[in-house]
Protein 1
Amino acid sequence: MSANPNPSLFRPEVGDPVSSFWRRVRQGVRLLRRQADWERFAGESWTESIMTVPLTDREHAKQGRSIGRKVFADGRDKLSVYLKRHYRLPRLHGLLATLFPGRAWSPGLQEWAHLCWAKEHGFPVPRPVAAGQFVGPWGRLQGFLAVEELHGMLPLHEAVPRAARALDPRTFARWKRGLVAELARLSRELHRRHVFHKDLYFCHFYIPEALTRTPPTGWTNRVVMIDLHRLGRHPLTGPWWQIKDLAQLLFSSEVEGVTARDRVRFWKLYRRHWPAGRGPGEWIRPLVKWKWQRYRRHNQRKPSAVPYDQQRSAA
């Protein structure tokens, strides 16, 4: 996505009125997206404060960007979002945003477009509430994205061990079969469109916490994908990104409760129901294992050698 932030598959809404080029250079320009209920909670002057408003909690900041939870209130009603903000984006992107102000050059607006695309194509994703980029003056670029919080949900690297401890062995085995089938379906439906997540880790799939104690009757659309900022469509280089996605999922599945049998089941289910002649061949499996081993070696070379699930919980 970085080389072309607006391929037609992910094109954001366009049509905002823009000023002349020299006025954009000297004074800047904004490109904004929001849901109908956003201004009710954020206030009419939210554009002036969104990059500086204090977060409520769970703040994490580094290298010119931050993320954290922000709870807005309107009387008794509340809107809880995760607010991603980028304060220092590449000057080149700022200059391009000045030249082409109707395009999404900031990560926040790009992820907004990705989330809208995913929702339109039937993928369970969080609701994007607002996004925008602030361009100029003189090529400066900042941006943000507000995504509604997934209330009462847990990432898989926490949910699977919790279910392993809460459910009896037979129920847990049935629970995993349904979950594995849904993960295989989501991965396959992305990849058969030549679309790749590029961060396909357990921590980027969420399920309702209640399901770790009471198995659902069906898993379809009960697993929500998050962090689609790197999502991209790659018809020509798809096999490489497919290998990477599958290796990331394999590596991150090394948590309590997941067995080799679960991984074999995932592979069999993933390979089903592809269009004729487009399914992954057996040749891809050793390459996925090779990439998985590279992830493992890289993790083991870290000074702390912290297990994957503990790394993601700390982050």
Protein 2
Amino acid sequence: MKYDTFVELFPTMRILKKEPLAKYTNTETGGMADVLAFPKTVAEVKLLVNMANENGIPLTVLGNSSNLVVKDGGIRGLVIILTDMDQITVSGTKIMAQAGASLIETTERAYQAGLTHFEFAAGIPGSVGGAVFMNAGAYGGEICQVLTEVSVITRAGYVKTMVNEEMNFGYRHSQIQDDHDIILEATFILKEGNKHNIRETMDNFNFLRASKQPLEYPSCGSVFKRPEGYFAGKLIHDAGLQGYQVGGARISTKHAGFIVNVDGATATDYMDVIKHVQDTVWEKFNVKLETEVRIIGED
């Protein structure tokens, strides 16, 4: 199916051809998408999924692309970015947020409503959909602790609702990763709290994040999962790898668990640094580091 056909079928949707994904990833790296679409409604997502299925078009769905490396060869077929689906609704102790909504903005809305238990996510720079997909967490909290249900569309084009118990949550894992469903909206159940205490906790977490993490550079966030019995950042630090650099990608001297884009890095630079870290940590400590960051696309 040609690009012009997408434009004809979706005249009100923003659709781009041969668009560099580096414009949309937090690492500021990544090759081109053949076709890039920004749906605003569930109906539009469903139509795009069905069209891709009917025409055998590869389909990739992205959120805020904060914990993601897109390879320099880009992504073939249709790429959907859900950031235009960003509505957040608060009803009592319940928050419903569309997949493209900012997780940070969602925690702010919780604070404004005097709702607690979402403070841990105050500074996590991703979308709600990405946070559910990865079971994002920080400072002792995880998405699985507050999510009650999630609306998804299957790759076959059917919309369904999954409750928390069906999500098979684990450390940086959800059932969505196995089923490849597309998250549309998440519902969180919180508790009434003291707004002063909520704000104080959020501000403290944001201070800790800013003081420990290299927020001044583009990055994909925490690169590696925490290996059982260890901390990835400490292993990398103890291996003497802080400051190691390939091209424009460098292991942060502020936090060893981050790889930052200091000078026009490519995705290949990132992947070369990741492999060097994995090989070195295995050689020195016999510990296998698995990536937390998603790596997608073509070489």
Protein 3
Amino acid sequence: MTRPAPRSPARQAAALMLLLLTSGCSRLIMFNTVVPRDEGVVRVVHDAAYAPGRRGMIDVYAPRGASGGPARPIIVFLYGGSWRSGTKDGYGFVGRAFAARGFVVAIPDYRLVPEVRYPAFVEDGAAAVRWVRAHAGEWGGDPSRIVLVGHSAGAYNAAMLAYDPRWLGPDRSAIRGFAGLAGPYDFDPFDGPIAAAAFQGAAEARDTQPVTHVAPGAPPALLATGDKDTTVRPANSESLAARLTQVGTPASLRRYPRVGHVGILTAIAKPWRDRAPVVDDVAAFAASVTAPR
């Protein structure tokens, strides 16, 4: 009887991560022990407080030696989880992936449903961006060149910060671009339990939608989605791209074949990068919009 060939370490890591995801472990805390890490990256900040409370913590990743060289552009990454789950401790792979491409990467936690509802999670994102701007020089980051990146509910939060001027005020001038991965941007009425729980009590449903706030001069966008995503339909990205184009803002729409809602996120990790060029696309976009003017 012929025995199957042993799996490579990368395939073993991929199988375990998929098991964690499909078993409901969306926090991905096990990631750092099972997935190969990008080299040349340092976590320069761990559990710094950008706001009061246990959910007001932030981590920062940077290329090794970044503080001794020219100021680098910053990525602020906001994770998903239906506004009701998630922790920055599970997303070190995102920080390392983009720090290895030359960016300083900040990953904050934020308050979740049912403790809070809209707009608290957007307000937390704004507070995190302000904290990053205030401290960027400590780790070699440029506070005037920030790209907001998010997945799923985190992409919603990031889009609201990029396009609705209420949240960041004058700090919005530092936002050079927005990259959304499988984000919901145009999804009212709130007839599903997830959105209903997160946006209960909002006075005007349309006012909560990123597409509503797009105006001339809005930051350019990369809107990526998977054609197998049945959690957040690609129509959300298409709607936001159309609105941005309408007001004259560059918007690149990427639709990855055979990729689902989770797959677009796990493609950032080393074992899955051949499934979709998410890291390449986001890094190239962030580099282009933060290039010296």
